[in-house]
Amino acid sequence: MSTRADLRSLFLFEALEDEQLAWVAAHADEVDVAAGDDIVTEGDPSGCFYVLLSGTLAMSRIIGGDPVETTRTDHRGVYFGAVQFYLDDESARTYPASVRAITDCCVLALPATEFAAVFQQWFPMAVHLLEGMILGLRKGGQITAERERLLALGKLSAGLTHELNNPAAAAGRAADALRDKVTGMRNKLAMIADGHIAGPQLHKLVLAQDEFVKKVRHAPSLSPIETSDREDELGDWLDGAGIPGGWDLAPVFVAGGLEVSDLDAVRTASDPAVLEGAIRWLAYTVETESLLREITDATSRISDLVLAAKQYSQMDRAPHRFVDVHEGLDATLVMFGRKLGDEGGVEIVKDYDRTLPAIPVYSAELNQVWTNIIDNAIDAMDGAGTLTVRTARDDERVLVEIADTGPGIPPEVRQRIFEPFFTTKGVGKGTGLGLDVSYRVVVSRHHGDIAVHSVPGNTRFQVRLPITEVLA
């Protein structure tokens, strides 16, 4: 057992009173540890507060399922183990890290429970200050993290509102135009009836109308040159048939996938006296069907956005389950639609390995990770560049890589990007918690790993997640 003189030579105990030092000497044990042996193991009940007397030890934590060394020291007097013994808190009841002897070591072991009781008697004000500081930092971190999530939700809500507004407005415009076209079609039908068209001819026109509708539903996509050539052909045909305003009607028929041969069939089926009325009636039919298709496309787009929002939030699903990682990635990309693709200046490249198995995750939390990384990538590219999302298998883990063509992350910044509250954005534009939250979700919550590799024009965030469920 250490003498009082030995204990007072340690910086931790040098200011203790004789009575206090006597208590430490009476309750502490000197423990010899052979090289290679574990002194404490991360996650085990925190029974002792340890002080290094001699030798070299290494501290490590489990990250991504593997032990990662965080500290190695031979400094006499360093302490480890139940370092928060003075807290009556769940987090203080297990060892926060593992410590292994690198060489033969001698350590001083103090029972945490007994030491906490006398420590509170010796230094009541210090205990209050320490408790307040630790719990305050923890509470502040939780509040700021919630604020970070709300800010991200606000951004996504604005984007989703914009995305929903476009198809909704398109459907509204198409519905208004459809009302006018239906009215015009009724008028043209009345004109045909006034022409005393024969029953067999009217039947042929109705059949022609059905054929026109089918063609509109399967109208091919044409290049500008092909469109112009077909409009010229149909315009010439309409002029030759004596129908005025042919250049207004030709684009309608071309957009519906119709050709000269289709109009020839109409002329064969109708009397010359009612040909113009028949053509205009069928033009209204084509426009009506085109508007219906536009409404259908718009409402389908709204449904897809709502589905993507549900997949993103996972609001109707269990928090932890086996999922296809691509579902969350695609849903998150939809949320950023206004900044990506046709409307934004960022091109999306998807390189998915669709053979990947479903993996056990907390879907909503993982989607927050994708949100943070993609949002930072878009900001880094300043709205113009290429965003690449790649998935692959990496041994017994799934790799998700999100890359951007921005200016890159300097080495001095790259070392700190996962630190809480560290941000390179301007005041009011970032809390510095997005990547900290991502790190904790991936590493602590999912027992995975997150890393970043960056050079100008190629910044890649790599997230690795276990394929099989890892027990905490």
Q: Fraction of residues in helices?
A: 40-55%
Round the Cα radius of gyration to an integer and report it. 36 Å
Overall pLDDT confidence: 78
Intertermini distance = 37 Å
* Most strands sheet: 5 strands, mixed
How many runs of DSSP E, i.e. beta strands? Answer: 15
Shape: rod-shaped
How many helices does DSSP assign? 13
- Which runs of at least 5 residues are low in confidence (pLDDT < 50)? 426-433
Order of helices and strands: HHEEEEEEEEHHHHHHHEHEEHEEHHEE
Spatial sequence of strands, sheet with the most strands: 10-12-13-15-14
Proportion of beta-strand residues: 15-25%
Structural class: alpha+beta
Protein name: Cyclic nucleotide-binding domain-containing protein
InterPro entries: cNMP-bd_dom, HATPase_dom, His_kinase_dom
Organism: Pseudonocardia abyssalis
Task: Outline the fold blueprint.
Blueprint: H1 4-8, H2 18-27, E1 29-33, E2 38-40, E3 48-54, E4 57-63, E5 66-73, E6 79-81, E7 98-101, E8 105-111, H3 112-122, H4 124-194, H5 199-217, H6 224-240, H7 246-255, H8 260-269, H9 275-313, E9 320-323, H10 325-335, E10 345-351, E11 359-362, H11 363-381, E12 384-394, E13 397-404, H12 411-414, H13 434-445, E14 449-455, E15 458-466
Parallel strand pairs: 10-12
Antiparallel strand pairs: 1-8, 2-7, 3-6, 3-8, 4-5, 4-7, 9-11, 12-13, 13-15, 14-15
Helix pairs in contact: 3-4, 4-9, 5-8, 5-9, 6-7, 7-9, 9-10, 10-11, 11-13
